[in-house]
Amino acid sequence: MKSLLLFIACGLLAGCSTGNLTPAVPRVPEGFISTGLNDHGLEEYRHEPTGMVFILIPSGTFLMGTAEGNGEESESPVHAVKIDAFLLAKYEVTQGVWQKIMDSNPSYFKTGDNHPVEQVSWTDCDGFCRKTGLRLPSEAEWEYACRAGAGPDYIWEKDRGNDYAQYGHSWPKGHFETGLKKPNNFGLYDMIGNVWEWCNDYYDPAYYSHSPESNPQGPEEGERRALRGGSWWYLDYYLRSSYRTGYVPGCFNDDTGFRCAFSLVNEK
Ligand SMILES: [Ca+2]
To answer: How far is the CA of 190 from the centre of ligand 1 (A)?
Structure first.
């Protein structure tokens, strides 16, 4: 409850501009077309070059990580993090979108245009983002969006994981089409499960001991890049909002993909 109140308070503060009570209205970024509010009251946009749908994630402050004993040492200490508003893709990048932009499909499971692209390395995904004017989310943005603000480590109620995520040793089925499971409270699909999602940050298990409070971007250097969310192959433990891992940037697997983000630098 305490973290929920903190999130609501920050959201209310973020909705007021300095010196008056006029709500801030995000400027529609070039290349994006508003498609209205989603079922969770958040503005959605279609990104014209890729056709992907993005959700305007509101600014706020949340508690990142989990209490010692709930997970790995890399997930603690729990610490308050402020996130500016940004756009995040509603779905994992699909094989159809990758084919359209990159004229290839590296996926092991070539099971349809609406399935997530996989066997893409961090370097590949960064290349896709640079080509389309997008970027990878930071780890902090990813966790904030996964929790939909101040949500719990598991985004679902007890024993309801299958409603929200494709996970748990489903070989040889592999991943599902994106968007088949229930969305989280921001309207984002498959944040948990289906395929792991590359984040932009270098991965440092000790980063939380000294990370900045406002919009942390990860260490300045490192050997691995961060991955979040678990996959169709992994069990519950790895599907917590706070779980972190990292692979070398050239690594690729049949359960590793990504989703894109976009900065709203003029929105305050
Ligand atoms: Ca995912």
So the answer is: 5
